[in-house]
Structures are given as structure tokens and as C-alpha cells.
Write a structure and sequence with these properties.
Elements: H1 11-33, H2 42-58, E1 82-84, E2 94-95, H3 98-112, E3 122-128, E4 131-138, E5 141-147, E6 153-155, H4 158-162, E7 178-186, H5 189-201, H6 210-218, H7 223-228, E8 232-241, H8 249-258, E9 268-270, H9 273-286, E10 294-301, H10 304-310, E11 312-313, E12 316-317, E13 320-324, E14 328-341, E15 347-358, E16 361-367, H11 371-375, E17 396-401, E18 408-412, E19 437-439, E20 446-448, H12 455-466, H13 478-486, H14 497-508, H15 521-534, E21 537-539, H16 540-546, H17 554-564, H18 567-576, H19 589-595, H20 602-613, H21 615-627, E22 629-631, E23 647-651, H22 659-668, E24 672-674, E25 683-686, H23 692-699, E26 703-706, H24 707-714
Helix pairs in contact: 1-2, 14-21, 16-17, 17-18, 18-19, 18-20
This protein binds 2-(butylsulfanyl)adenosine.
The site of 2-(butylsulfanyl)adenosine (IVH) has 15 residues, from strand 3, strand 8 and strand 13.
């Protein structure tokens, strides 16, 4: 669909589009982060995200409370001991076109308030397609190695890292006392081919690509298996460092090299987008000749002082970006279309494909998104996509796979269409519970109306509750939870989250013993109970996330936890809040309080209110809270900051930083940055030109300080 160029949009069009984009991006974020089943590629996500950003930049006054600004979350494995990273292992935002790179550089300039003639450098280096690892050294010695996991908690793979030749046991040169080196574990094509030859000879399954082979080899409980596979490591970043040995990215990388690490010899320095694009093209050409897989290039601001000022938003640094190579495509036959029902009742069409290898991975399923997508219509219901070509069973289809995103059908080859292929009719009933499936006004998705009677929804809700980033119960995998869910035995069945925590008690009183059931055994049952009991204490943000409230993914759960601090306070707000009925209605105090949270808009707030107004939900929660203890996570890293927990408003024309930088800084020190003054405001930082906000702050007797005082306050 051709979109109106952003500089031609009227304010009304921009408002409408921002609303649509917020909704779409929230949904795709949710599918990606929460349900782990993205429907669109990173490239498409990024196009939408960038357009949203461009519109917001042109119309800053239209920026929505629920403006999309975050991404990413990856699961952690069960087998290894968990390690909490001292500093989060960041992920990267993606760029796909030159324009995205231009925008990245412009964003940095704006954030740092740099003039266009102020030159600063970027490093550019290949983006290795492997898995990231953090290796910690104390007094030169390797003490710990951990995978990225979800960025905050990874898996302890120290023993395996020790057998990787590229990872020194003892550092050379003059390293800092504490040094966490971050980089990518990968396998060369040569070693990968040799490994697969050995696998074949031994009758073992083959690895589909070097990345999977590297991941499978690093995540071995027996490190002698890892030692048998040749793994490599490129160092490109760092975590905790007791004393920085250099003040630039390139300087740090050189130091890592001196300490004994391999660094990528293709790394270069540039000071403008032309240079970066030249590098991108050069590396794309070289790609086929390299002995390791890469999927793009990474640009990083060279000066570490600037990196620190830029900081990061959620899980990606503002000072780096991955410029990805185009996604890989392939052609195959669409053999069937199945409908999957998600936990919110959404019906998603899934293409069953004649198996095909795309970028080294065998693909049998791909998403078809929704009814309109199959019909060849954009989600506005009017404009056409694929020139209006619909998708039919039997069609020859073009599929695309980018990274770990679920592959998608992007086009069809009309000339190959079988003469008897008929248009696909989207079902109007749920294939699982036979309830009506309804597509609401303005929505692209059909939703099963079965609610509590739809077993697919109930099962998916439990799956979400126990998923890794929610309550995270080990030993309750997909098959097991389905077994418990389907069981009609009262001492075994798990039909809601509460049943998980009552399982052991119910079993004690029962004569049907779980350990006698095939696939269980006494040891595994004990382990399961231990895993369940270990989760009776759970942090507030995980708990809120685990409830599966619509639009409340991990990031929003954290925002809510940070704002309310205690579960009771959150519930009280959710139960008391009144959703505004029309444009003149502002809702009550509790409503205002929820939407005052940065990043929480009325869509999310309404979903929270709806969730708590559903009697069934409150009943389940009441029982659940008798089983689990929800505690507030401490923001210990920030506890020595004098502004931790405070709500701060910046007003006027700040001299030393942009408004965005000021807000980011407040958040870094554990404070909440708000845009308007209320009785909840603790501190107002004023600069010349401050107007009504200053007056209101004075009226309310709020502490007012100037910009310089702010810097002394946070040290
Ligand atoms: S820098 C804060 N540099 O890409 C810096 N990452 O998509 C964080 N990756 O999680 C990463 N090559 O696993 C960086 N040269 C490179 C990289 C690289 C590959 C991976 C890394 C990261 C992922 C983000």
C-alpha cells in the first residue's frame, strides 16, 4: 500500500495513523515478546516503528501515552544454573534502509543537542550470526561465563566457555581487576561442515546451520561435548569494568585484543552515513567469502562518554544499531491453512507448507496473519496488498524468513495457480470450542467468543502463566501442561494457575499417584513440586505479567510494578479506576493515576480495568494469592541515588541536555520522569522560559531546583 509521505500528512491524518500504529505495534510487540509467535518480520515491524517515529517527530504534540518504544525479549534455557547479569546484556534495534541509518544518526544528534557540523565517529563491524556470551574476569582469571538469556538473567555456561580456545583462561597485558567481556560465540563454515560429517557418520541428527550448531554445542551439560566441537568467540563489547582502560569503543576493542581476545579485523571507523553505507555495501559483497555467518553490520558511537549520555531505552542502546541484510526468501506450495486459537481468543491462520529450506532452516509453517492478509487487503480494509492477489490452498507461495521470526507468506505466483483453487473462506466459528468467532469493528482479527469455555484459550493462558518470563516453572513443558489440562482426574487436573500450586496437596490425598503415570516417575514428580514451590515467591512485575492482561507485556508490567510497588496498591487502582465514557470525561483519580504512568495509555489502562472487573479473574486471583507471595523487587542498584522513586518534571529550555536526555537521566537514577505537575510530583527542575508548570509547582509547594542543582543532586 502506498502511504502518504509523512511531511504531507495533515494533523487529523497523523492522529489517526498514530493511533493505528500504536495499536498495531502493541499487538506485534505482544506477539513477539509475550506470545513468542511474531507474525511479521523485523523488517516490517521496523518500517511501522520508523514511520510512527517520523510522524511523532513531525507532530510532537500528538505523541500518545501508549507510543511504541520498546522491543525484545528472549527466553532462557532450563538446564543451567541461572545467573543475574550485573549489567543488562543489551540487544540492538534494527535498521533496514539508508533512511533508518540517517534517522539513527539524527536521533543521536537531537538527543545530545549536537549541531549538524559537530562531527563524531562511529565504529562499523560485521554483525555475527551466533549467540552472545558474557565472560567475567576477576584479577585476570576467568570466573564466570553466562549466555544472554532474557538480557537480565542468563545461563551459567562457565565450564563450557573454558573449553573454547578463543576465550582465555587468564588475561594477558594489564587488564582491570574486574572485566566482563561480551561477544559472540559462533562456528565457522569449515568446522560446521566437519561437525555435520561426523554427525552423519555416527547416525546423529544434522545441525541445520552454524548458529544452531554453536548454540547446541555451548548449551551442553557435559563440557567434554563442547570441547569436541570447535567454537569461536569474537569480543565486541563489555559489561562491568572496574576501571575503563580506554575512552572510545575502538580503544576498548584494541585493549580486549591486547588482553588475548579475538576481535573482528573488519572493524572500521567512520564519521558520517556515507561512510557507514559504503562499509555496509562492502561487507554485503564480502559476505559470501567469509568463513562465518553474518546477518548485517553494527554501528556504534565511538566515544564512550557519548555512549553513556545516550544510555539505553529498555533493552537497546541509543548509541548502536544493527543494519540488517535483506531477509531470505524461498518458493514452495501452500498445502493447507489451519487456524490456531491464542489465549485472548484470536484466530490466527497458519500456512502448512511443502517443506523447504530457507537460509539453512527447514520451514513447514508460516503465518498468514489474518483474513484480510489472505484476501490481499491491508488492515485498513481498503488498500490492496500484493496487488490484490489473494492466497489459496494449492498456490505456489513466496515465503520469507528473517532471523528467529516466524516465517511468513509474502506473495504468490499467480501463473502457477491450480485451475480448481478456490478463495479461502475464513471461519466464523472457533475450531476448538465451536463458539462464534467475531471480527469487531476496526479489528483485523476474529476472536472466539467462547471466553472461559474455550479450552484453547484456557490452556494458552496457563501456558503464558508458566512461561519463562512469567512465573517460569521448570519441568512443566508444553506436553506436560497439556496432559494436566486434559486430565479429568480431580487430583491431577490443572485448569487454572491456582491448580498448579494445589497439585501436591491434591496428590497427597489421592490414590491416583502421578509417579505411577507413564513419563513421570518419583524423581521427576519431586522435582516438579520443588520447581512449583520455588515459585511461591514471585516479584510483582513477573506476577503482573503472568496474569496475561491484554497489552500488559513485560515492559508494561515493569512500569506498573515500579509505579505501584505493592500488588494491593495496583489492584486498588485497577478496581477503582473508572474508564472515561466520552471525550469530556477525564475518568476519576485512580484512572488518572494509571494513565499518568509514562508509557501506559488509555488502551492499556482500559484492559487492566476490564481484567479486574471480570468476576472470574478476581476469584482466581483471590485463591492464587493464598498460594503465592508477591514481593516488590528492590531497585537496589539505584538505592544510593537521592532521587530514587521520586517523580520529577523538567520544564523550560534546558541548557545542558535535551528534554529526552534529561528524562532518560532521571530514569537511570531510579526516578520517574513525568510531563505534567500534580500533587504526586516531588521535584521540578526549571530552566529559563518555564511558565505555567513553574507557577503550578509553586502553588502546590513542590520543591523547585535549577538545572545545575539537578546535576549536583544526582552527582
Ligand atoms: S553489540 C550494547 N556487536 O546481535 C551492544 N552485537 O541483535 C550489544 N551481535 O545481542 C551488542 N554481532 O548477540 C554487537 N558486532 C556486534 C554483534 C552483535 C552480533 C549480536 C548480539 C546482540 C544481537 C542483537
Amino acid at each position: 500500500m502506498i502511504k502518504v509521505s509523512v511531511d504531507k500528512l495533515t494533523e487529523i491524518e497523523a492522529t489517526r495513523e498514530l493511533k493505528q500504529l500504536a495499536k498495531k505495534l502493541a499487538r506485534h510487540n505482544y506477539l513477539y515478546n509475550t506470545e513468542d509467535r511474531p507474525e511479521i518480520s523485523d523488517a516490517e515491524y521496523d518500517i511501522m516503528w520508523q514511520r510512527n517515529l517520523a510522524i511523532e517527530q513531525r507532530f510532537p504534540e500528538l505523541i500518545r501515552k501508549d507510543s511504541p518504544s520498546f522491543r525484545i525479549a528472549g527466553p532462557i534455557l532450563e538446564k543451567f544454573e541461572k545467573v543475574t547479569h550485573k549489567t543488562t546484556m543489551l540487544s540492538l534495534d534494527n535498521a533496514f534502509r539508508k533512511q533508518d541509518v540517517d534517522d539513527f544518526v539524527d536521533r543521536i544528534r537531537r538527543f545530545l543537542r549536537l549541531n549538524s557540523d559537530y562531527l563524531f565517529d562511529f565504529t562499523a563491524e560485521p554483525k555475527i550470526d551466533g549467540l552472545s556470551l558474557s565472560v567475567r574476569y576477576e584479577n585476570r582469571r576467568l570466573v564466570n561465563a553466562a549466555t544472554r538469556g532474557d538480557g537480565m538473567i542468563g545461563e551459567n555456561v562457565t565450564e563450557n566457555a573454558r573449553v573454547v580456545a578463543d576465550i582465555p583462561d587468564v588475561l594477558q597485558g594489564n587488564p582491570p581487576d574486574v572485566l566482563e567481556v561480551r561477544g559472540e560465540i559462533y562456528m565457522t563454515h569449515n568446522d560446521f561442515n566437519a561437525l555435520n560429517r561426523r554427525q552423519q557418520e555416527a547416525g546423529n541428527p544434522l545441525f541445520s546451520n552454524p548458529r544452531n550448531a554453536a548454540a547446541g554445542s555451548l548449551r551442553q551439560l557435559d563440557s567434554s561435548v563442547t570441547a569436541d566441537r570447535v567454537l569461536r568467540f569474537f569480543a565486541y563489547a563489555w559489561g562491568e569494568v572496574s576501571k575503563m582502560p580506554a575512552d572510545t569503543q575502538i580503544g576498548m576493542i584494541d585493549c580486549l585484543h591486547c588482553y588475548g581476545f579475538n576481535i573482528n579485523s573488519l572493524t572500521r571507523l567512520f564519521h558520517d552515513v556515507t561512510g557507514l553505507m559504503g562499509f555496509y555495501n562492502e561487507i554485503e559483497e564480502k559476505r559470501a567469502t567469509l568463513d562465518y555467518d553474518i546477518d548485517g553490520v553494527v554501528y556504534k558511537v565511538n566515544e564512550i562518554a557519548l555512549q553513556n549520555r545516550l544510555g539505553f531505552s529498555f533493552r537497546s542502546p541509543r548509541w548502536a544499531i544493527a543494519h540488517k541484510f535483506p531477509a531470505e526468501k524461498a518458493i514452495t506450495i501452500l498445502q493447507n491453512i489451519d487456524i490456531q486459537v491464542g489465549r485472548t481468543g484470536a484466530l490466527t491462520p497458519v500456512a502448512r507448507l511443502k517443506p523447504i529450506t530457507v537460509g539453512g532452516v527447514v520451514v513447514t509453517n508460516a503465518t498468514l496473519h489474518n483474513e484480510d492478509y489472505i484476501r490481499g487487503v491491508d488492515s485498513d480494509g481498503i488498500s490492496s496488498i500484493r496487488n490484490g492477489r489473494d492466497i489459496r490452498i494449492g498456490d505456489t507461495v513466496v515465503i520469507q524468513r528473517a532471523g528467529d521470526v516466524i516465517p511468513q507468506v509474502i506473495d504468490i505466483i499467480l501463473e502457477n495457480r491450480p485451475f480448481d483453487a478456490v478463495p479461502y473462506v475464513f471461519p466464523h466459528i472457533c475450531p476448538v470450542c465451536s463458539s462464534r468467532a467475531v471480527r469487531e469493528e476496526g479489528e483485523a482479527i476474529y476472536r472466539c467468543q467462547g471466553g472461559l469455555i474455550c479450552s484453547a484459550q484456557a490452556l494458552e493462558r496457563i501456558r503464558h502463566f508458566i512461561s519463562r518470563n512469567a512465573v517460569d516453572i521448570e519441568g512443566l513443558g508444553d506436553e506436560r501442561i497439556e496432559f494436566f489440562f486434559r486430565s479429568e482426574d480431580e487430583s491431577i487436573t490443572i485448569k487454572s494457575p491456582v491448580d498448579i500450586f494445589t497439585l501436591e496437596r491434591r496428590q497427597k490425598e489421592s490414590i491416583t499417584k502421578l509417579e505411577r503415570i507413564e513419563g513421570f516417575g518419583a524423581v521427576s514428580v519431586r522435582k516438579l513440586y520443588d520447581a512449583i514451590n520455588a515459585r511461591r515467591k514471585i516479584t510483582l512485575s513477573r506476577f503482573i505479567f503472568s496474569l496475561g492482561i491484554r497489552y500488559v507485556g513485560e515492559v508494561n508490567a515493569r512500569r506498573l510494578a515500579r509505579h505501584y510497588l505493592h500488588y494491593d496498591a495496583f489492584v486498588e487502582a485497577a478496581k477503582n479506576a473508572k474508564v472515561p465514557q466520552d471525550r469530556r470525561d477525564n475518568g476519576n483519580k485512580a484512572w488518572q493515576d494509571i494513565i499518568s504512568i509514562e508509557g501506559i495509555g488509555s488502551t492499556v489502562a482500559s484492559a487492566i480495568v476490564d481484567f479486574y472487573s471480570e468476576k472470574h479473574n478476581t476469584e482466581v486471583l483471590c485463591k492464587l494469592l493464598k498460594e503465592v507471595n508477591v514481593f516488590n523487587e528492590e531497585y537496589s542498584a539505584l538505592s544510593n541515588s537521592s532521587v530514587v522513586g521520586k517523580t520529577i518534571v523538567f520544564t523550560g529550555g534546558l541548557r545542558r541536555m535535551s528534554r529526552d536526555e534529561a528524562k532518560a537521566m532521571a530514569e537511570r537514577f531510579g526516578a520517574k520522569a513525568a510531563s505534567s505537575i500534580s500533587t504526586k510530583t516531588d521535584l521540578v527542575v526549571v530552566a529559563p522560559g518555564a511558565g505555567s508548570k513553574l507557577t503550578k509547582a509553586k502553588e502546590l509547594g513542590i520543591r523547585i531546583i535549577e538545572e545545575d542543582e539537578w546535576f549536583s543532586l544526582v552527582g
